[in-house]
Amino acid sequence: MRFKANSGFRNSLRFKLVGMVLLITVIAIVAAWFFSNSLIKSFYILDARSNLTTTYESCNQLFLDASGSPRPYAIAAEELYENVENPSNATIFIVDYKNNQIYSSVLVTKKIASSLQQIIDDHDFESLKSQKKKYRFLNYEESYDLLGVLDNGFLIILERPLEQLNSSIQFSSRLFLIVAVVILSFEASMVLIISGTVTTPIRKMSLVARRMSHLNFEIKAPEERRDEIGELGHSMNELSRQLENTVSELKSANASLSRDIEEKERIEEMRSEFLSHVSHELKTPLALIQGYAEGLKDSVNDDPESRDFYCDVIIDEANKMNTLIMKLLNLNELEFGNEPLKIVRYDVIEQINGILQANQILMEEKKVKLTAPDPEPVYVWADAFMMGEVFTNYLSNAIHYVKEGGEIRISVTRKDDHVRVSVFDEGSKLSEEALEKVFVKFYKEDAARTRSYGGSGIGLSIVEAIQKSHNQDYGVYNEENGVVFYYELDGSETGTNED
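-> structure tokens emitted (499 positions)
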């Protein structure tokens, strides 16, 4: 499986570490939230009870005399504000039921008096007098109350509104959430910073491993740390050195073996192909030479004109055989690279025009309409003699295949540092098979037609060998009304080939 060079922060170890730590923290905070929510109200209720109890004790103390005995006489209402300790800020109602007197920390209205009467009627205060704790707590929708009896027999009702209690609970909840968010943010920042010290060297080692997988052993893993990561970096560098040595040895051995195998196969294939094609190509001229020579020997025709014709055929076939052999030798030298290239800078337009002029008579015989390139010089770097062979082969091929009175169009175009020479001949198109095999040695799409003008099927193979020796492109393609052969040359300012 191939991993991307950059897998993204979401898939990184750093993200996973931060995610796990934050997830654990969030779970802990949520658990604490639910736990605290279940206890916080109980805590405030206990606190409210404690405060109400303090207020009760303070009120009870208010109605005691100096000796500590209860005093059932009236007190000023202001004393409830001045002398009673009331930490819960509860509303105080002290009822002298026998004398129909109410001592209150607020103004008693008829509604309040009616409500107090209802509370006294609904609860058994008499039973509280005999208990050790002479009070009890009641939880209403809007208040949390203490109902009790003072030591002097007065009834006491302390009323603490739940609104204040609920406000305190909500404030604590909001504070809890704010603190939780701050803790999470701080923790995420710290984990990101701390995890970077671990994941950064791991990322560097991952880069080293990827480079090693592409047989690049120049980069080294960090190994200056004195921990497990440093040990891993040292091990990776040692592995890289060993792999580099092993791969180098394997490549050298493999290259040598491949060269030997390829050379052997190439030689064997070329030998077999050469014998097959040469025997095929020489069979026809040898048969003609033999037949006409036997005719001369047997004096088939005694007249001088017939003898001259027989001799001309023998000479013509012998010349064809000689031309074929010379081309084969030339192609053999090109394929084996025995002859070094002589790279020079020259004007390809001048060379093309010279070859066109030399073939002017052949084109006039077929009434060819020639379109030559612009006369402006185009300089290239190449072996001028070999490139002349390339253009000559293309032009010869075009002259022989162009239709009577058809067009041959020569174009020279420049693209970046390359110059392309194209030779178009108007006529029939090449088949798909011919487009693929036209540069193959001895290939002839129409053998009978090729032989009629002396073609051997080697010219385009020579083009291929020359272009490969120059490391330049070449090819063929069909157009709407003909075929285009092309080759490219180095058109840079300084040239890229060497002599």
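Residues 228-297 form the longest helix (70 residues).
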